[in-house]
Design brief:
With 491 residues, the chain is α/β, with parallel strands linked by helices. 29% of the residues lie in helices and 24% in strands.
């Protein structure tokens, strides 16, 4: 039924859970036969002359670039170039996910995290198990988690004599290999989504130089029982540099090896890595925070589901969706985007959340909004994908529809401000373009993209979508993007 429903809506989706396992993609956006026909009708002459000359000078293939630029008050686009060619969107796919979420859930939507008891609770002592049930909160961070447990103690719970049960049943997702995308399973951007997700699934490792002993100390938060950490960090001489903040974490047969150099001038700093399953991570955090608050707990981790006889003790409410999408788009948080995407499916088509339900809900809203989604491929909603596809025209149309929507202020404010914050904080920082655009960036090994809204020097409001797929995208892609943005700003 799901497949028939999707085909009926015409959305090309990835129904399987597999992700291409190449570290660097083998394909480089070479046009397919149908795309070649399109390209013949959209020659590079449509690009500004100075941009065409730059591409020729840098030997950038014209067919590897897509451009969609439109004055929001004009009847026709200003620049079209390969705008209907589906390309790897990288993280600009998050614009689709966050706008769909705003429309279907509303900016005021919040997530619940429930705490249930199984057993008798008397005089602050629970003679039984405590159950944490998640509903997909993407931003259950240290502060929120501390508040949740503090509230439990305010309600009288002091000692738990049973186990901690994690209920992740609100999401039903395929098995996920965090190493499949690029062989870096410990990187936070590869974290798997989870209905109960603490701190983006990441452990924080505190790095601290001990000059007297000539060593670099490493302390994980929360503590990971049984973790064998081989500390091969060296204390370097001289000032602190950017490289000192990027130690190498290698999975060994008996544990984790951490290597690299660290300067005493760097002070104390946290490095984030994914080291545990979502359930283990929540359990370790609960144990440490609960005890730091004076609570008593010596139980073990279990997974399961809330039963009809269990008693609801407390419900924690998250930040609103309108607040959370700012973290997603400004800092390109992949696992938050994936949690939001799954939430869409559960809310629209019922729990448990599945990727297929989210794709169907997305297709239906795009159709109602008059956005052409032919050839669009949505894998997980984050853009961290080798199979996701999106054309510049499709994203341009979405941005145009969003501009005229009541939720436009929340949507636009979620994007990085050029030269001011997020992933665009240093770009055009000392130029006239600073502060004139809200735009989302995207980067993969052979794909770069940027999309959003710009106010030109003359006061025009433009929608801009730039997509560049190919071997040269990482090298000259940003230079080409900046040249087009400068040209657009002067229109």
């Amino acid at each position: 039924m799901l497949k028939k429903f999707i085909i009926a809506f015409g959305l090309c989706v990835t129904l399987g859970s597999a992700v291409a396992q190449d570290v660097t993609p083998s394909e480089h956006s070479a046009p397919q036969p149908a795309e070649l026909t399109l390209i013949r009708h959209q020659q590079s002459a449509e690009l500004p002359e100075e941009i065409t000359k730059l591409m020729q000078q840098d030997k950038t293939p014209s067919e590897n670039l897509s451009v969609y630029i439109r004055d929001l008050n004009a009847d026709v686009p200003m620049v079209l170039h390969n705008d209907k060619v589906p390309r790897k969107p990288a993280s600009v796919m998050k614009l689709v996910t966050t706008w769909i979420a705003l429309k279907l859930l509303s900016p005021s939507y919040t997530w619940k995290t429930e705490v249930w008891t199984r057993g008798e609770l008397n005089d602050g002592v629970l003679n039984g198990d405590l159950i944490l049930k998640g509903y997909g909160d993407p931003f259950l961070t240290d502060e929120a988690f501390w508040q949740l447990l503090h509230d439990l103690q305010l309600k009288g719970l002091k000692e738990i004599r049973g186990n901690l049960i994690i209920d992740n049943s609100y999401f039903n997702i395929p098995d996920y290999d965090p190493a499949a995308f690029d062989g870096e399973p410990n990187q936070v951007y590869n974290a798997r989504p989870s209905a109960l997700m603490f701190n983006f699934q990441a452990n924080r490792f505190l790095f601290e130089a001990d000059v007297t002993k000539g060593k670099v100390g490493i302390t994980p938060f929360p503590l990971i029982p049984g973790l064998q950490l081989e500390n091969s960090m060296t204390l370097s001489k001289g000032g602190c540099s950017k490289g000192h903040y990027h130690p190498d974490f290698q999975q060994e047969s008996v544990g984790i090896k951490v290597s690299g150099a660290y300067s005493a001038d760097c002070g104390k700093n946290f490095v984030m890595r994914v080291m545990s399953t979502p359930e283990e991570h929540v359990f370790n955090a609960f144990r440490d925070v609960w005890k730091s608050l004076g609570g008593v707990f010596n139980g073990k981790l279990q997974t399961g589901q809330v039963q009809p006889t269990d008693v609801l003790l407390h419900t924690h409410e998250s930040r609103t969706l309108g607040e959370q999408i700012r973290f997603v788009n400004k800092w390109s948080n992949n696992v938050m985007a994936r949690n939001i995407f799954l939430t869409i499916g559960a809310e629209m088509l019922g729990a448990p959340a599945t990727l297929d339900k989210s794709r169907i809900a997305t297709a239906e809203l795009l159709q109602k909004s008059g956005i052409d989604y032919t050839g669009m491929v949505i894998e997980n909603g984050s853009g961290l994908s080798r199979t996701a596809r999106l054309s510049a025209r499709q994203l341009g149309q979405l941005l145009e529809v969003a501009w005229r929507d009541p939720y436009m202020p929340e949507f636009m404010a979620s994007m990085p401000l050029l030269g001011e914050d997020g992933t665009l904080a240093t770009r055009f920082k000392n130029a006239d373009l600073r502060g004139r655009s809200h735009m989302k960036t995207g980067t993969l090994n052979d794909a770069t993209a940027i999309a959003g809204y710009m106010i030109t020097r003359s006061g025009k409001r433009l929608v801009i979508v730039l997509q560049h797929n190919g071997r040269e995208a990482q090298g000259g892609g940003r230079k080409l993007q900046d040249a087009i943005l400068k040209w657009a700003f002067e229109q």
